[in-house]
Write a structure and sequence with these properties.
Blueprint lengths: L2 H12 L10 H4 L4 H19 L9 H17 L11 H4 L5 H18 L5 H15 L19 H14 L6
Helix pairs in contact: 3-4, 3-6, 4-7, 6-7
Length: 174
């Protein structure tokens, strides 16, 4: 490969990096490291301001977001931001959660405002996946509720189902 092709491949690979917390982000892209840190902080601040949810203290939340932001910032730097992947059905699964997508939209807005990045549906999907993973770690109080069960076979099966649910989720059912 000539120098131009090698340069393009390097930029393309940098713009499509996966998350690997064993990789040293500062050594991988020293020219983007500070920007990645600042952008990740801004995204988390926006979510906290808009929703009251503080993801920053959750284990891995900040370094994972920094690694997710790196390809986006590399894309902005080299004019490759905003591109769309097609037929990535697994990634699109996270677009089915309105909550995750809304959080991702807050992050995307912060990213666009602070870096000028064009955010694609693929980027929203990746951010939604990130949010989904974090939401499973958020602790909140649950008030037990009464449960009403029905079953298509009849009331006896509904009772059995209710007893199973009560055994499995005693903290959720009054």
């Amino acid at each position: 490969l000539d120098t131009a092709e090698t340069g393009f491949l390097a930029i393309y690979i940098l713009s499509n990096m996966d998350v690997d917390l064993t990789r040293d982000l500062r050594g991988t892209a020293p020219f983007l490291y500070e920007d990645c840190c600042a952008a990740a902080d801004q995204l988390l601040l926006r979510v906290q301001r808009e929703t009251g949810t503080d993801f920053a203290p959750l284990p891995g939340a900040v370094p994972i977001l920094q690694q997710l932001v790196l390809p986006l910032l590399a894309g902005v730097r080299y004019g490759m931001d905003g591109y769309q992947h097609f037929d990535y059905s697994y990634e699109k699964e996270f677009l089915k959660s309105p909550l995750c997508v809304q959080y991702a939209r807050y992050m995307a807005a912060a990213l666009t405002e602070t870096t000028g990045c064009r955010v694609s549906q693929t980027d929203i999907s990746i951010l939604s996946c990130y949010v989904c993973a974090l939401l499973t770690q958020v602790k909140y109080d649950i008030k037990p509720l009464r449960i009403l069960t029905t079953h298509f076979i009849g009331t006896q099966f509904a009772r059995m189902q209710a007893k199973d649910l009560q055994k499995r989720y005693p903290d959720l059912i009054e």
